[in-house]
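Hello Y.,

Per our agreement to keep a running log of every chain we model this quarter, I'm adding this entry. I've kept the format consistent with earlier entries: sequence first, then predicted structure.
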Amino acid sequence: MSKSARSRQQLQIGLIFLVIFGVIYFLSGSSTEDFTILGIRAMNRGEMNSAITEFRKALEKDPDAVEPNSRLGWIYRRMKKFPESIEHLKKAAAGRPSDPEIQDELGLALLGINNLAESEKAFRTAISFKKNEARFYNHLGMCLSRSSGRDREAVNVLQHAMKLDKNYVSPYINIGWHYFSRNKFPLALQWFMAAYKLDPGSKKLLYNISNTHKAMNRVYEYKRWLSLARNARDPKTF
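Predicted structure for the entry above:
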């Protein structure tokens, strides 16, 4: 082997060892921020299990870090793992108490276990920091709709969400469900149809309309809307 070839070989070996030691150093010395960034990237790719792994690594470095706790709370709520979601969101809220998005997410997780009092408190806290956010009023209205004796208040709050964002379909659907759950089917249908004008392709909404016709013994309309629902788009999981 010539001297120049031997030098190139030694250089290549040196580079390989440099890369190996760099990887080892990275894995052993990554910070909370490093793992959080990796978790967010995994979330953006839709790889939620990988994201959970990275956020947990971040919390091993700093158990009270706001961002990984907040992100884990978001993921776990969508997995319907409400106790885990609440645990992480409470830690995130403790570290960043004036963040309305964390408070809103916490309210939704608490609503998942039907803790209406604490859920309402979280939504009202979110609203106190961001008074013109339609989503927060919609979520508060959902909570109030489940609370005994607060029907009028629930509808008023949901209608306020509509005033803040006329193209926001969720409060229309939630008023529809409010009346459906109380067997007021004509009123429920009225609000579901108003929602349909805003979002005619929603699979869930089409099923709502179909089921309302069924509850009203309108067999033809029930079957027609059921057929539309079965052929509609599926909602995204995340």
